[in-house]
TrEMBL record:
It comes from Lacticaseibacillus hegangensis. Residues 3-205 form the ThuA-like domain. It comes from the Bacteria. It holds the Pfam family ThuA. This is ThuA domain-containing protein.
Length: 216
């Protein structure tokens, strides 16, 4: 059995926004899924996949230290998959192990208002996460991000009246795989079939499972 830790739930991104999507993405008895608002729960057990939908710092706790981030980087190097969706990219500092060794992308700001945001696969880029995926369009928060393009594979672009930014990227770190996605602030974005398809494809890519094993 595979085990996933889903880190979600904070003031601006409550768990009831994310949980319906997670429940749709994990329908197989192949998986044991643990939901939490606390990133440090990663140190309490071993997991095949970690999914950050928030920064994982509940009220009263501090951010993950660089030492703790390095321990998570080690987990990924040894084969754990990890993904950062929307608010999961927040509080990744420029000099932190999450940025320099793992995700190679970090939150830099966001649109002042919700806008119509379209996140679409980049033409001529073929990848199991995005192959066959149609553009995801929803009223959402447009994140601006800093990315070390030399370390990642660019997968999608996010475009709105605010401009065009990288919308999704991935990389391999040791034996593990890393995936990041910009949209995901609103119910409108999280409830699209494209969001479910992208997350399901990312789960399959990161864990090496077949579609039948993951979804049936």
């Amino acid at each position: 059995m595979k085990k996933a830790l889903v880190i979600r739930g904070d003031f601006y991104h409550p768990s009831d926004k994310v949980d319906p999507l997670i429940d749709k993405c994990f329908t197989s008895s192949e998986w044991k899924v643990v939901k939490t608002d606390r990133a440090r729960d990663l140190f309490e057990d071993s997991y095949d996949l970690a999914m950050f939908f928030t920064n994982g710092r509940p009220e009263g706790e501090t951010d993950l230290t660089n030492s703790e981030q390095s321990a998570i980087v080690k987990m990924v190097r040894e084969g754990m998959g990890i993904m950062f969706v929307h608010a999961g990219l927040v509080l990744i500092e420029e000099d932190s192990p999450f940025y320099t060794e793992l995700n190679s992308g970090r939150f830099a700001g966001h649109s002042k208002k919700h806008v119509s945001l379209t996140t679409a696969p980049i033409r001529n880029v073929s990848h199991p996460i995005t192959d066959g995926v149609t553009p995801l369009t929803a009223v959402d928060e447009h994140y601006y991000i800093n990315v070390n393009f030399s370390k990642v594979t660019a997968l999608m672009l996010s475009a709105s009246e605010e401009g065009t930014t990288l919308g999704s990227w991935c990389s391999e770190v040791g034996q593990g795989k890393v995936f990041s996605l910009i949209p995901g602030h609103t119910f409108a974005a999280l409830e699209t079939p494209q969001m479910q398809e992208i997350i399901e494809n990312a789960i399959l890519w990161e864990t090496g499972l077949s579609a039948n094993a993951s979804r049936n």
